[in-house]
Amino acid sequence: MLKNCEKCNRVFAHPTRSMCEGCFEEELANFVAVKEYLKENPGASVAQVANETEVDVEIIYEYIRQGRLDIIPSDVKFHCEICGAEISSGRICPKCKGDLVKGFRSQPVSEPEPESKPRDRGSKVHYLDQIKDRR
Predict the structure, then answer these.
(1) Is the pTM of this model over 0.85?
(2) Which residues, 6 or more positions from 67, have their beta carbon under 8 angstroms from its beta carbon?
(3) Which DSSP symbol is given to 110?
(4) I want to staple 48 with a disulfide (CB 3.0 to 4.6 A). Which of 1, 44, 60, 79 is the partner?
């Protein structure tokens, strides 16, 4: 399937990616650089990481929101999108995440209703059904 790269708008073919090979490799190199810098300097701030790795601050925040970084810069604080509590990564605090999971588990699973509509026997597609009806 042909798509346009979300960064450079070049046409490329890949079944799952939204970026072309060049942009994907650049994105991967940026991520590895940020991850390695934080591994060597665990107390660094986002500004320090951005200056040393030459990766945009917004991209670093996106890595943190996605939960891709094991070590998080010291000055990062996000707020839960549901209750507003302060969190260090992700979009939802553990309490709200647990409440959401409980809510999904407590709702009964509805069974699909059986079809009450009679089958159309006039079609020539259902040969087996027509043969059984003749016997």
Answers:
(1) no
(2) 89, 90
(3) P
(4) 44
